[in-house]
Amino acid sequence: MDSSSSFSSSTFCKLPPIVTNETDRIFLQEVNKFVEKELVKLGHKADEEQNYLIYKSVFNRVIEHVTAYKPVLTAIKKEYETTIDAITNGQKEAVFLQGRLKAMASEPSTIRNYRKRADQLEERINYIKKNNKELESQLLAARTAREEREKKENEIKEIPRRQLKKDRRSIPGLTLEEQTDLPLLQKKLEKLDRQLRELNISFKTRYLPKSNNLELKDHLDKKVSFRDHLLSQSQAFKARSHRMKIALEAAEAYNGVKPPNQTVGDAVVLAFQHYFGQQAAKTEVTNLEGETGTSEATTTSQFEEDDPNKEKEAEMMLEYIEKFNELFEDGKFEEAAIHAANSPKGILRTQATLSKFRDVKLWFNGGRTPLLAFCDALMSSVKATGSKPGVGLSVDCIRCALSENRLDLLAHWVAQDSLSLSRDIGVLLDEHCSCQIPCKCGCQALAQTIFTGLREHQNVVICLVKQGRVLTGLQYAKIKGTLEAEFLVFLIKTCPSVQLFLGLSEEHDATGTSIVPIGVILKTLLQMDNLNLGVKFLQQFQKSKKKGDGDKDKNVLREAIFNDHITTSNEWNRVVKGLQEEGHNEISIQMSAIILVVDALKNALNILNYSLLEA
């Protein structure tokens, strides 16, 4: 048994049945005859108002006759009259509102475009202001460094004496404690000596005097002439081999048949004549071109395996990797990052290189880690190399920039189209944002750009709502066809805000019914244990509706509950109970009274329809 039935049984006494004796039955028959008689008089041309007057008089007679149900029927009559008056007033205002609607029909699209443009300009202004602040700080730092440099130069000019300079620079790649450790410095010195010896040996063995260039050129010319001689011999041998093959085939054919009056020599001569006759059908130019092309293809196939460019390319890549390792070991991480990002064929633009930079736990004076330096260099080299990093590498770069809170770099990478877009990047940006609605850090705007590129429309709507752009988000969802009930409930749970609830309550479907009734919003907030936000929404909802309609006495909450055909009585009772537990007694009593009246109206309508059917 639900709470409404228990409440009614405890408040009212049990009512007697409607028909108790023969007098009541006679009365009902008279009433039915009266209704039929009056309807026959009016005919088919009767309007609704005349039918209403007939049933109104009959209803008054029923109220006067049935004394036990007089309070209930009186209340029903009152609600009917209130509803009919509201419909009549609405029809009278319809003509005025139609004219006003035509005037306002062209306003929403213009206002929507202005708002969208205003949001875009506001985002652009904020981004420009942020960049201006950074540029001002960089300009101030450059001016300070210039003043210090000029001051030092003036001091040097004023001192005529030459003094011995002491090198006080720190050793690259070593901390302050390591620079004072003698055994470690001794190992470092031995390593540098070994590298110096290797460089000297490489200089002596790898590089030769310029005079050797002429000798190498002469040697190359001899090799080329010898190659041409071999090619000509090869072509002559091929032609001879082909003729020998023709002669052999002719001899084998002669031995298989042995025709009379013919020798083996005659068969071979006839075969050669047939072969040369076929060759004569072709033009001499085509024949020469064919021989040239054959020789060139033969030359390519012969010397392709001996091409020294492949060996040189492998040596260059090996030297490139060795140079990167040297820079990395010397602690020149910025140079190593740029070196790796611009590597040929992307040999160092890999996850392994990124992991190597990730293992270095060091911060530069510029306020960024070697890992972020590599990521920035990787993104800056996209246009030069013509290839974007893979999805996994792009996600790692995004994660690195977020860990160091460098949203300016992220915005630059996205604007330059340097990333391989994926849903994981949008999720990372969304999870990094810790702002209350609306978002002020800029993560949601970047995530919106990512999801727009991926055409994930629902995620785009969520990002717009989290930025506080509720009207833009709902309009985008309507255009893309994502205004589904399940998605809207998920949107309420993900981005709860009064502005969103008001926007959803104002959206209607083709039948004029709200796509998300207030009952669905309140029971969703009850599940989230956030009814305090629901109370704020109800207050703003009543104010906005009264202000929009210009009728302060209008009970907008009652109309909203009456038009909610989705929420059941049990769900309304749970919402009312939750409001009472949260201490919102006034709004809970108001809603309880409205729910009771609505249930009574619905039950009375059902009883009346049933009784009329039986009669």
Written description of the protein model:
- The chain is an all-alpha fold.
- Among the domains are: 18-104; 240-257 and 264-279, no CATH class; 502-615, no CATH class.
- The chain is built from 28 helices and no strands.
- Helix 12 (333-341) packs parallel to helix 14 (370-380), helix 23 (498-506) packs across helix 25 (531-549) and helix 27 runs antiparallel to helix 28.
- The longest helix is centred in the first third of the chain and has 52 residues, at 107-158.
- The protein starts with a helix and ends with a helix.
- Residues 1-13 and 287-308 have low confidence and may be disordered.
Helix and strand topology:
Blueprint: H1 3-11, H2 22-42, H3 48-65, H4 70-104, H5 107-158, H6 176-179, H7 182-206, H8 212-257, H9 264-280, H10 284-303, H11 308-329, H12 333-341, H13 351-358, H14 370-380, H15 382-385, H16 391-403, H17 407-415, H18 423-432, H19 443-454, H20 457-466, H21 470-480, H22 485-494, H23 498-506, H24 518-527, H25 531-549, H26 556-562, H27 569-582, H28 585-614
Helix pairs in contact: 2-3, 8-9, 11-12, 12-14, 13-14, 16-18, 17-19, 18-19, 19-20, 20-21, 23-25, 24-27, 26-28, 27-28
Structural class, from secondary structure content? mainly alpha
| Count of individual helical segments | 28
Q: What pattern of helices and strands is seen along the backbone?
A: HHHHHHHHHHHHHHHHHHHHHHHHHHHH
Give the fraction of residues assigned to helices: over 70%
Uncertain segments: 1-13, 287-308
Distance between the termini: 31 Å
User: What's the story with the biggest beta sheet?
Assistant: none
Broad shape: elongated
Oligomer: single chain
Rounded to an integer in angstroms, the radius of gyration calculated over CA atoms is 46 Å
- Estimate the mean pLDDT confidence: 76
Q: What is the β-strand count? A: 0
Strand percentage? under 5%
Region (Disordered): 286-310
Keywords: Coiled coil
InterPro entries: ARM-type_fold, Clathrin_H-chain_linker, TSNAXIP1_N
Coiled coil: 111-202
